[in-house]
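#struct-pred

JT: dropping the chains for the assembly here, can someone run the whole complex?
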Amino acid sequence: MQKEALEYSRFHELAVLGLERARAVLSAYTGRPLRLAAVRSDYVELNRVPFLSGPPEQVVLSSYVTFGGDIEGQLLIFFRPESVEKLASLLAPHVFGPLGGQRSAALLDSLIGEIANVVGSAVLNEVADGFNIKIVPVPPVIVREMAGAVISTATAYAGLDGDSAYVAYMKATLDEENASFEIVFLPRMGNLQGTSQKTV
Amino acid sequence: MRNSLVVGLAEVKWSVLPEDVLVAFSLGSCVGVALWDPVLKAGAMAHVMLPSSSRGRKPAENGVDACRISRFEKPGKYADTAVEYAVRCLTAIGAEPSRMVVWMAGGAHVIPGFTLPTGDIGAANIRAVSETLKRLGLPEPRQDVGGDYGRTMRLYVGEGRATVYSVSRGEKEI
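RK: done, full complex below.
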């Protein structure tokens, strides 16, 4: 039990390190300090998972990535509507700023996809490097839907393993702009135990 | 004054209180199943995640496969055990399966490309719930299933009506 606990805590550390890297990159992009507002990871009862990221019926723009390789799992990044506009105006002021030109949902999705790529690849790379394993992500998909519907669908994977899921939850925020995004990392539990054996 | 009872992922809840509203929030690939007995004015709701308990079945220590699911798992997780459990909750207080009103919602494909090793999970959940309802002799469900959008399902216990809310379509009775 002790070995498993240590291994999960290492996973948590690596995920946070990855987010730190992403934070630095995005701070440089936006010219604003990006702060980690919440970082936690734990086993969560399945019925609690849809409520991890605020009201489950609220519509969010989410980036969804599955990954395979030496471990399987899913990485979701949620952007609340008010934050999407603010982040977009900082990252592409010529389009989404006050004097911006033509806006389109597709362009917004693409921009959010880019942020998700920066964050997702930083977190996954850090975990892969830290454990010296191979992680192969599939290209992200952008979904505009109720947060709870997206996360509960993703949780079906965890349901194959038991009645709880190991979840790493992180929130990054631009305090000045009152904008934030949330990351929900759902590695499959069985795979992570395998990782534990690999790194000993 | 209404009182919402949240039916979380893999849960089954029931009530006989007329002010209670059973709610399954944000069904994606999950399927919400609601049962209501018009004589008792009692209702139950299940929030089904996966189609079949055979996936979670584990042999008991004495080698006999006595339980349909592991004692560590919730009956509400699988379509077959969830519907059976919901029916049992209501029949235990005198409800009759043949007179029950049944609703089903969800089973959508909200994440493009998302499948489990067993295939499209939403479609499999719909199929499994339908088969279990038929096997248990329950009436055909009123339903709002499939598509690519999330839904919230509510059962108003005192009135015996069910609604489905989605972002693009608003709230409607089914």
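JT: nice. Chain B touches chain A through 33 residues (CB under 8 Å). The first strand of chain B starts at residue 3 and ends at 6.
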